[in-house]
Amino acid sequence: MIAINSIGTYLSPSERLTLFPRLGRLYPQGQAMLAKAEDYEQIRAVSEHYSVSLDTDVWAGCIGNVSSRSLRSLVRQRRNQEGFQFEGA
To answer: Who's near 72: CB < 8 A, 6+ residues apart?
Structure first.
C-alpha cells in the first residue's frame, strides 16, 4: 500500500524506502524495487516476483481509477462487503 499510495507524490525513492518496515518477505531487495517503482505495473511485477498475493478486485479498482478513490477506500469497501470492520473507520 505504501508503494501504491506514494506514486505521483514528491517522495524520492530513498524517502519511500524509509516508510517500509524492515522485515518481511520483500525486505530488503523487494522493498528497494518497490521504492523505485513509478507505476502500478512495476509494483505488480515486484509483487509477482516475490509471490505476494494481491487481491485482484482491489488491484483492478486501483488501475485506471486512482484519482477518484484511494486504495484505503477500496480496501474498506471490500472488507465491508465481506462483513469485516475496518479499524478507525
So the answer is: 1, 5
